[in-house]
Amino acid sequence: VRVLHLKENIASLARLLASTSHGGFPVVCRPKPDHAEVFQGTIKRLELCMLLENEHIFEPERNDKSFSSSHPFSYEKVTSVEKLPNLSRLTMLLNRYTTDPRYQQLFINLEPYINKSAMSVQAHFSLQRTYIVFRTLGLRHLTVVDPQNRVVGVITRKDLMPFPLEERLRLQLAPQ
């Protein structure tokens, strides 16, 4: 499972977006240095791309692990993006971020932009109930966590596609 951290390196983020087609990513953080990384929320690919088009929000790494408190974009502005305005520009930017050494030293604070109320399910959650949650809420992806809230997987719509087919077949074959 590909996860992101609240503080993410620009070059690593660009490589991830260039090498995958995932529509969203779980975001994790380590509450204390000796603790495991736990699920914090999700962020969509589109939102990440929108953020990466704005270099002025990148920051150098600091020793105290903090970020400046200013958030150049509101959560609403970032999450309201419906499609990328210029795909060729984004491709060029991702290429620059992965090849130019300057971006190895720059980071982005994802915390203000993640969906902190994103749904998640326990690893042993029923497949049928998962399907119902997907259909009812119109989800695109659902993070799977263990009892300690560590990310162990992501379920997408594609993973559940055979399920409605089985359901329809069962209804057709059921005695009338």
Overview of this structure, please?
This protein has 176 residues and is an alpha/beta fold. Helices cover 36% and strands 22% of the residues. The strands form 3 sheets. Strands 1-3-4 form a 3-stranded mixed beta sheet. Strand 8 and strand 9 form a beta hairpin. Helix 1 crosses helix 4.
Structure at a glance:
36% of the residues lie in helices and 22% in strands.
Report the total helices: 7
Assembly context of the chains:
single chain
String of helices and strands: EEHEEHEHHEEHEEHH
Name the helicity range.
25-40%
Distance between the termini: 44 Å
Overall radius of gyration: 19 Å
pLDDT below 50 for ≥5 consecutive residues: which ranges? none
Task: For the largest sheet, list the strands in their spatial order.
Answer: 1-3-4
- SS strand fraction: 15-25%
Helix and strand topology:
Elements: E1 4-5, E2 7-9, H1 10-19, E3 24-29, E4 38-44, H2 45-52, E5 59-60, H3 75-79, H4 87-99, E6 106-109, E7 120-122, H5 127-137, E8 141-145, E9 151-156, H6 157-160, H7 162-173
Parallel strand pairs: 1-3, 7-8
Antiparallel strand pairs: 2-6, 3-4, 5-6, 8-9
Helix pairs in contact: 1-4
